[in-house]
Design brief:
Layout (H helix, E strand, L loop, with lengths): L5 E5 L2 E3 L3 E6 L2 E6 L6 E9 L3 E11 L25 H18 L6 E6 L10 E8 L6 E6 L7 E2 L9 H17 L13 E9 L4 E8 L8 H8 L6 E9 L11 E7 L3 E5 L2 E5 L9 H15 L6 E5 L5 H7 L4 E6 L2 H13 L5 E5 L2 H4 L9 E4 L8 H9 L4 E6 L2 H13 L2 E9 L9 E8 L2
Parallel strand pairs: 4-6, 7-22, 12-13, 17-18, 17-20, 18-19, 20-21
Antiparallel strand pairs: 1-5, 2-3, 3-4, 5-6, 8-9, 8-11, 9-10, 11-12, 13-14, 15-16, 21-23, 22-23
Family: Belongs to the class I-like SAM-binding methyltransferase superfamily. RNA M5U methyltransferase family.
GO molecular function, one term: methyltransferase activity
Organism: Romboutsia faecis
C-alpha cells in the first residue's frame, strides 16, 4: 500500500470526533468520516508499515445501522455526519466512545451515569451562520453551508433538519432577494465581492428572532428594501432585530468592523432555568437551548449543596453556569478571556438581580493565581483545547474539595483529568449530555473530589 493507491474496505470502529479506524490485512486504516459497517472506497494519503491515513472517496454500501431517514442534503453537506443513524443508536455510540477515552487513560473507579439525550434531536439549533457563494463555478447564487470536504462550494440548505421553518424562510428569501439584485458574493481568495454571511439567532423560550446580514464595504447598497422584505415574512417568532454587519477582514470568519441596526435592537432575549439573558450578535450562547437547560441542571446536581459557598466559574463565557449556581452560593467569581463576554455576564447578572456575582476578564492560566479568596467549589468549562497545565496547577492549588468539569471535548478532558490526579483529585462521577444530535460531538460533565 502506497500514497495515492485506491482501496476498498469495511469501516470497523467509529472514534470520538468523527474519525474511524479499520483493519485491512495487518494495517490500521485511519479515516475522517464513515459509519461502522459501511463499505467505502478511499485514497491513501500516508502509508507506513502498520498504519495508513486515507481520504474517503465514495460510500459503496450503506451500514446496516443506517436506518433513519436523513435530509435531502445528507452526504453532500458537511454538517450532520450521522443523521442516517437512529438517535438512540447515536447515543449508544457516543457513550461508548467517551468510555473508551477514559479507559485508554486508565481512569477507573468512578460512577458512570450514562448519557442524557437532547430533548430534541432535530430542530434544536438556536443559531445558524450561513455563507454566500455558489455550488459550482459561475453557478447561481447560493447561501448555506460548505459542501462536504469542499472549501469553496456552498449548498443552500433549505431542507435542513436542525432548524425550524423560521430559519428556512429567512434563508431562502434572502438568497432569492440578493440573487435578483445581482450583487457579487465575497471571494476569500481574491478578497473581492460584497455578500459574505447571514447569521440567524432565535430565542427559543422567548420567541425572538435576530437576522444579521454580513457584507464587505465594497458596495454602497441600501438595505431598506431587504429589511421590509424580512418584516413581511410570516415567521412564527417575532423579528426584533435586523442588523447589517460590515466585515472587511481577510479571514473567512464573521467579525465586525461596523454594526448598523436596520430594525429593532442589537440583541435578543433568552430565558434559561428561570434566568434572563441578553444575546448580542457576537456573544457566545449554547446553540441548543433546551439541551443547555439539561446540561446546566446536571452540573447543578453534581455540585449538590452549595449553600453559602464561594464558587469559581472558570472560562465563564457570558456567565450562564455561574448565575445558575448563584441562587444558593455566597459568592460567584467568574474568569473569561473575551472582554465582551465578561461585560455581557455582568450585565446579565444585574438583569437577574444577582448581587453576588463578579465576572472579570483575563486568561484563566494567568488570572486565577491572583485571586486572594479561597473557593469551596470550582467549575471549569473550557474551550476545546482544554485547561492549560499551568492553570490546572493553580486551580488545584486552591485546595477546593470539589471541582465540576464541563467539557465539549472528551479527548482533552481525559488528559486534563490525568493532570488533576497528580494534585490529589479523583474522578467521582461522570455523565454525558448530547448537545449536538446527528454530529460526532458530545458534552461530558465530571465531578472531581479532593482525596489528599
Amino acid at each position: 500500500m502506497k500514497r495515492k493507491d485506491i482501496i476498498e474496505f469495511e469501516v470497523d470502529k467509529m472514534e470520538f470526533g468523527g474519525t474511524t479506524v479499520s483493519m485491512l490485512g495487518n494495517k490500521e486504516i485511519h479515516m475522517k468520516g464513515g459509519i461502522s459497517g459501511q463499505k467505502v472506497k478511499a485514497a491513501v494519503k500516508k502509508a507506513r508499515s502498520k498504519k495508513a491515513e486515507v481520504k474517503m472517496l465514495e460510500i459503496l454500501e450503506k451500514s446496516p445501522i443506517e436506518t433513519a431517514n436523513p435530509c435531502k442534503h445528507f452526504g453532500i453537506c458537511g454538517g450532520c455526519t450521522i443523521l442516517s443513524v437512529p438517535y438512540e443508536k447515536q447515543l449508544e455510540i457516543k457513550e461508548r466512545q467517551v468510555m473508551d477515552l477514559f479507559l485508554n487513560q486508565d481512569i477507573f473507579g468512578f460512577q458512570f451515569l450514562g448519557i442524557e439525550g437532547s430533548p430534541q434531536d432535530r430542530l434544536y439549533r438556536n443559531k445558524m451562520e450561513y455563507t454566500f457563494g455558489d455550488e459550482m463555478k459561475d453557478g447561481p447564487l447560493t447561501l448555506g453551508l460548505h459542501k462536504k470536504g469542499r472549501h469553496i462550494d456552498i449548498l443552500t440548505v433549505d431542507g435542513c433538519y436542525l432548524v425550524d421553518q423560521d430559519f428556512i424562510k429567512v434563508l431562502t428569501s434572502t438568497v432569492e432577494y440578493f440573487d435578483e439584485k445581482k450583487l457579487p458574493y465575497y471571494r476569500c481568495m481574491s478578497h473581492k465581492g460584497y455578500l459574505r454571511n447571514l447569521v440567524v439567532r432565535k430565542g427559543i423560550n422567548t420567541n425572538e428572532l435576530m437576522v444579521n446580514i454580513v457584507t464587505s464595504s465594497q458596495e454602497d447598497f441600501d438595505m431598506t428594501e431587504y429589511k421590509e422584505m424580512l418584516l413581511n415574512l410570516e415567521t412564527q417568532a417575532e423579528i426584533v432585530s435586523i442588523l447589517h454587519t460590515i466585515n472587511d477582514g481577510l479571514a473567512d470568519a464573521v467579525q465586525c468592523d461596523e454594526l448598523r441596526v436596520l430594525h429593532g435592537r442589537d440583541y435578543i432575549n433568552e430565558e434559561l432555568l428561570g434566568l434572563k439573558f441578553t444575546i448580542s450578535p457576537f456573544s457566545f450562547f449554547q446553540t441548543n437551548t433546551k439541551g443547555a437547560e439539561k446540561l446546566y441542571s446536571i452540573a447543578r446536581d453534581f455540585v449538590g449543596d452549595h449553600e453559602n459557598k464561594v464558587v469559581f466559574d472558570l472560562y465563564s463565557g457570558t456567565g450562564t453556569i455561574g448565575q445558575v449556581m448563584a441562587g444558593a452560593a455566597k459568592k460567584v467569581y467568574g474568569i473569561e478571556l473575551i472582554e465582551e463576554a465578561v461585560v455581557a455576564a455582568n450585565n446579565n447578572a444585574k438583569l437577574n438581580g444577582l448581587t453576588n456575582c463578579e465576572f472579570v476578564a483575563g486568561d484563566v492560566a494567568k488570572t486565577v493565581k491572583n485571586f486572594k479568596v479561597k473557593p469551596d467549589l470550582i467549575i471549569v468549562d473550557p474551550p476545546r483545547p482544554g485547561v492549560h497545565k499551568d492553570a490546572i496547577r493553580d486551580i488545584s492549588g486552591f485546595g477546593a474539595k470539589e471541582i465540576v468539569y464541563i467539557s465539549c471535548n472528551p479527548k482533552t478532558l481525559v488528559l486534563d483529568l490525568v493532570e488533576f490526579k497528580k494534585y490529589g483529585y479523583e474522578v467521582e462521577k461522570v455523565k454525558c449530555m448530547d448537545m449536538f444530535p446527528n454530529t460526532p460531538h458530545v458534552e461530558t460533565i465530571v465531578k472531581l473530589k479532593k482525596v489528599n
